[in-house]
Amino acid sequence: MRYFLLCALFLSMTVALTAQSKVIDNFIEKYRGIESVTHVNLSGNLLNFIIENSDEDGETNFMSRLDALRVITFEDASAVNADDVSALKQGIQANDYEELVRVRDGKELVQIYLSENKDKVIEELIILVQEPEEFTLVSLTGALRYEDLQKLDLDDDADEALENLPDRGQPRP
Q1: CA gap 94, 38 in Å, rounded
Q2: What does each C-alpha distance from 74 to 62, 128, 133, 145, 149 come to in angstroms?
């Protein structure tokens, strides 16, 4: 019986994580083959190789906590359907991602969402950058900490917001 309960618990956690990533997967799958789109997907051995060779100090760094890094950039914002972007955002919010940061600077909008487990470990971080000429989606999955987010180098306003986040041991904002 105990084995059955553990299997059921593991399966439910796997299904929940898969449902969360499915929104991002579907969006990327729809657009990754378009000529004006740049798509990068790093995971597995290639990501491990990059991590091992980028850590000069021998310390465990932010990259070592990543399982996957996915980026899709539309160099021409008109290549992405506005309804699809809206559906993407709705899907992110419907799957219990928390909007961590929203920064609007003129016509540029940066939104950062995260999904965390019950232990407050960030399992996925999604960054959306909308500009008049370009749209970018970045998805980082792994076991990230709030102090990792403070080290990210982003747009000035988003960077400042992330730098002021409390670490995992402090209350969340």
Answers
A1: 27
A2: 26, 12, 8, 29, 24
> CA geometry: angle at 90 spanning 84 and 96, to 5°?
140
Whether residue 102 contacts residue 113, with contact meaning beta carbons closer than 8 Å, is answered with: no
> Tell me, what amino acid is at 93?
Q
The letter for the amino acid at 55 is D
Report residue 128: phi and psi, to 5°.
-115, 130
Cα separation, 150 vs 109, whole angstroms: 19
Residue 139 and residue 68 in contact, taking contact as beta carbons nearer than 8 Å: yes
Q: How far is CA 73 from CA 14, 27, 28, 45, 141, in A?
A: 28, 12, 10, 23, 18
- Name the strands in the sheet holding 122-130, side by side, starting at the edge strand that comes first in the sequence: 37-43, 66-74, 135-144, 122-130, 108-116, 98-105
For the stretch 87-103, pLDDT in tens is 999 999 999 899 988 88
CA geometry: angle 88, 37, 15, nearest 5 deg: 40
Question: Largest alpha-carbon pair distance within the chain?
Answer: 58
Model confidence pLDDT, tens digit, residues 127-167? 999 999 999 999 988 888 877 776 666 555 555 656 655 55
Distance in angstroms (rounded) separating the CA atoms of residues 95 and 71: 20
* Closest CA relative to residue 141, chosen from 28, 65, 51: 65
